[in-house]
Amino acid sequence: MLNGLLALATCAYLAAVYLTNETKGDLREDFRQRAIIAGTLVAILAGIVMAFAWYEAHWFFERLLSPRSLPVVLAGLACFAASAWAVFTRRYIWSRVFAAAEICLLILGWGLAQHPYLVYPDLTFAGTAAPATTLQFLVLSLPVGALLLAPSLYYLYRVFKSE
Hints:
Elements lengths: L1 H21 L2 H32 L1 H7 L5 H19 L3 H23 L2 E3 L3 E2 L7 H30 L2
Helix pairs in contact: 1-2, 1-5, 2-3, 3-5, 4-5
C-alpha cells in the first residue's frame, strides 16, 4: 500500500511540476504550491518505504545500497533536490528537467537492485521471458505500430500546443 501511495504522490509531483511550466499567473502559483506539497509528501513516503524495506525486505534494501545501484539512486536523489530547488526558486524549465531525470534514475536504481528477479526469490527475468518467436514478433511489430501512431501523436500535440 505504501508503495502505491508513493507512486501516486510521485505522479502528482510530476504533474504539478510539468504544469508549472505550462501555465501562467495565479494558476502557475497554484501548481507550484501543489508541487511543493506533493514533493514533500514524496520525500516523507520514500523515507517510510525505505524503513519498511529495511525491516521487511532486507535483501532488497541491501541490494539498493550496493555499489551497483547506490550511485544511480544517489544521482536520483540529487535530481530530486535540484528539482525541489528549481520549484522553490521558480526555475520551472529546470524543475521539469530535474524531475524527469529523478524519476528515470530512481526507477533504474530500483531495477538494478531488483535484478535478476522479477518477483523475489521465485521468478527471474530469464525464467519468465516469452519464447524467442514471440519476442521476435514483438520487436519487429513495434516499429510498424510506432509509424502508425506517430502521426496521431503529432496531431494531438499540435492541437493542444497551438494558440
